[in-house]
Recover the amino acids of this structure.
């Protein structure tokens, strides 16, 4: 089924193909300049460090709905083994098998495609079974450190968490921005809190995933206008699920990753950060969220840290 006209209209307005040159593979991360990082370092006041990642564990957020996206399977490959002979120092090693988008993660720009294309107009066929992503893989972003801004949409509305069918609109983002007393600026990494991850933390994996609040198909224009570097939230699907437009699945993914070239993150645990920001009456911080550089990967686990 062809993508509807309203999708293509938004796509034209947010498209960044060629903005940083025909060879660009980093997209909106180009907004994070040395000056942006220097200014971001000035956001540290108390030195409080808030981790934002879920534990990597076999009983993780994945329910089996998405084929191949397995939770981490941890195996010990040697235990107290004296590999250099009897009486020598003993070693314990382990190995893990899991989907790169299984837990708290970044989606690479190649995570989705549409109309046979990925970011910057390259063919989707450049993603192959043996090589993965030839262009714009998760090994290409480099340093992802900048000013983080928490847009606590739920708290701004006086709620613990948003309802499952809530689409986070540009109006919601502006409301959360005003509530936080900040102005989102070029190079910022925006974290959108819905409170949905509380469902998973309470032990209901299936309720966490469906139905889910998430970003509206209208939200990418808000980020594009502000030259945001990357966006992450605390939901399984990132965007509202099921979708706003009938039978149009993952349109926000396509607009963010393919059209804008904007890294997006899912399953970020923003609960402790929400509390810390509310107590400090400050919603900006230094954010370090370095991707694991899996060559050719279309996503990666990440262990982000906010420093207030």
């Amino acid at each position: 089924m062809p993508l509807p006209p309203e999708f293509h209209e938004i796509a034209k307005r947010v498209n960044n193909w060629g903005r940083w040159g025909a060879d660009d593979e980093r997209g909106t991360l180009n907004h994070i300049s040395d000056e942006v990082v220097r200014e971001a370092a000035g956001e540290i006041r108390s030195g409080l460090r808030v981790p934002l990642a879920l534990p990597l564990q076999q009983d993780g957020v994945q329910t089996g709905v998405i084929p191949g996206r397995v939770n981490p399977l941890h195996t010990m490959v040697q235990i107290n083994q004296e590999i250099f002979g009897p009486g020598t120092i003993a070693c314990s090693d382990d190995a893990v098998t899991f989907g790169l988008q299984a837990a708290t993660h970044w989606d690479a720009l190649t995570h989705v495609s549409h109309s046979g294309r990925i970011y910057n107009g390259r063919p989707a066929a450049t993603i192959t079974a043996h090589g993965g992503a030839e262009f714009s893989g998760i090994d290409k972003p480099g340093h992802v450190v900048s000013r983080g801004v928490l847009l606590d949409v739920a708290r701004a509305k006086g709620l613990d968490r948003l309802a499952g069918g809530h689409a986070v609109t540009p109006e919601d983002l502006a409301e959360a921005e005003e509530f936080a007393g900040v102005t989102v600026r070029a190079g910022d990494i925006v974290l959108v809190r819905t409170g949905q991850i509380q469902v998973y933390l309470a032990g209901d994996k299936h309720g966490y995933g469906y139905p889910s609040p998430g970003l509206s198909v209208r939200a990418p224009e808000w980020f594009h206008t502000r030259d945001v570097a990357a966006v992450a939230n605390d939901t399984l699907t990132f965007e509202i699920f099921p979708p706003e437009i009938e039978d149009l699945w993952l349109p926000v993914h396509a607009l963010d990753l393919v059209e804008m070239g904007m890294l997006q993150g899912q399953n970020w645990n923003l609960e402790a950060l929400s509390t810390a920001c509310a107590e400090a009456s400050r919603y900006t911080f230094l954010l370090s969220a370095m991707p694991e550089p899996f060559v050719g990967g279309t996503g990666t686990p990440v262990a982000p840290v906010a420093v207030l």
User: Anything to note?
Assistant: The CA atoms of residues 27 and 261 lie 4 Å apart.
